[in-house]
Amino acid sequence: MEFQISGRPIGKQHKPFIIAEMSGNHNQSLDRALQIVEAAAASGVDALKLQTYTADTMTLDIHEGDFYIEDPNSLWKGNSLYNLYQEAYTPWEWHKPIFDRCAELGIIAFSTPFDETAVDFLESLNAPAYKIASFENTDIQLIRKAAATGKPLIISTGMASIAELDETVREARRAGCEHLVLLKCTSTYPATPENTNILTLPHLEQLFQCPVGMSDHTMGIGVSVASVALGATVIEKHFTLRRSDGGVDSAFSMEPEEMKALVLETERARQSLGQITYGVTERERESLKLRRSLYISKDLKPGDILSRDNIKAIRPGMGLPTKYLDQLLGRVITKEVKKGTPLTWEVI
């Protein structure tokens, strides 16, 4: 249930592995792509991920019918698939300078291959892991190809049934994948929190006996932070410099300040889980003295009777616990006590 990607441990005992997904947010500028790398590293992420394909490896150069996006709710309405992928793809010759810049800045670079030729290309760059996108999680040939490299696989589970995931996981493991992460994903862009169903995470982990995480397309960081409490060890979020800069995925991408907050708050969430515990922790021990307890509130002499007029339940906590108040009322004082004395059994 634990392994490493380029020396970075993945597992519940370690800080969440945060992936900044560049996707097409480079807007066809290598300079901008490298700026995104720098901003991602400055935000504290563990990895930057690319997508490796061309328009021709994704679809056909047809601009009508099934190849035209007509969905009125789609961010990409009015585009053909071919034109969309031409706009969004990361030129393959950019991969090495991007990988090199990541290495210089101390973050991991890897990618999502969308066909077998992309796996071969990424192997030439010694990619340390492979991400399989939700839309390809039933592409068994691609999964076998990526698994056969022996590198860790991170697979998004968007739209997949349990039966489909079972086949995917079996084939990946049969082909040589020893280290697998399954990401809960909702394949809408953006996704809404109420359609995210992160309660699936522990069930997913139990079914397939592997680490789980989130490929999170919701806005903000709340869903990702909450997912850590349910077992997420990997968080993937789309990333850009500014949403106002535009780009194919900019509308649901994180900005640097948000990514920095995500890195910080997901680790706080993990640290807060701790273990099942009751009673005083070592760090709380000093706070015990600030509990309420019973104190003498007036100067008293032997023979005086304890009453609500001369006992108070107050802070600090050096006197008897307040639960003994009823037993003490009406008892006789045996020695002189001053106002502000903690009430103990020895004075009655």
Write the element-wise H/E pattern from the N-terminal end onward.
Answer: EEEHEHHHEHEHEHEHEHEHEEH
**CATH topology heading of the largest domain:** TIM Barrel
Rg: 30 Å
Return the CATH architecture of the largest domain: Alpha-Beta Barrel
Number of strands: 12
Strand order of the largest sheet: 5-4-3-10-9-8-7-6
Helix content: 25-40%
**What distance lies between the first and last C-alpha atoms, to the nearest angstrom?**
61 Å
The first-level CATH class name of the largest domain: Alpha Beta
The class by helix and strand makeup works out as alpha/beta
Would you identify the CATH H-level superfamily of the largest domain?
Aldolase class I
> What's the number of structural domains?
2
Q: What integer is the average pLDDT?
A: 96
Shape: elongated
Low-confidence stretches: none
Percentage of residues in DSSP E strands:
15-25%
Q: Give the biggest sheet.
A: 8 strands, parallel
Number of helices: 11
InterPro entries: AFP_Neu5c_C_sf, Aldolase_TIM, PseI-like, PseI/NeuA/B-like_N, Pseudaminic_synth_PseI, SAF, SAF_AFP_Neu5Ac, SAF_PseI/NeuA/NeuB
Protein name: N-acetylneuraminate synthase
GO biological process, one term: carbohydrate biosynthetic process
Organism: Paenibacillus stellifer
